[in-house]
Prior knowledge:
Number of helices: 7
Oligomer: single chain
Number of strands: 2
CATH class: Mainly Alpha
Mean pLDDT: 81
Structural class: mainly alpha
Radius of gyration: 20 Å
CATH superfamily: Winged helix-like DNA-binding domain superfamily/Winged helix DNA-binding domain
Distance between the termini: 38 Å
Amino acid sequence: MKLTTKGRYAVTAMLDLALFQDQGAVTLADIAKRQQISLAYLEQLFGRLRRKGLVESVRGPGGGYHLAQPEYAIRVSDIIAAVNEPISTTICGGEAANRCKGENVACLTHDLWEALGTEIQQFLNGVTLAALVAQHHEKQFGQEHGSPLRDHRMAREKTVVAVAGADKHVSGS
Length: 173
């Protein structure tokens, strides 16, 4: 699976917007400068983000952008989907008609890669912009709170361990 610059830049720009919007509308020029992303590229991304209802534009003097929803309501998966970034880990892109080898024939490891794609999607569904903001503040200001991403990962690992333990118990019966 490869997440292209479109998805990465969109998430980065949205995090920047979330971090600076309390100072007023944030201009794309400011985001471009801070994050070293082309202004023209940001304009394209923010057009898509606006159409999907993730950001709102403010016109006039002091104009720019702000989040259209609360940080806790915007998931990383929403941002990536808004810029039309597919999250596909299979060669065929998950299209049954094409499949990996064509003619509706899957490669030997298709199910493995498809399951990985599902795990990635679930992970990105579980990470909000608020979690990224909290993680940034923790790193920058040295707050002693748990990292939302680390907490998510730990909860996931506990689930995997619990499921693995249940499998052992069932197969050992």
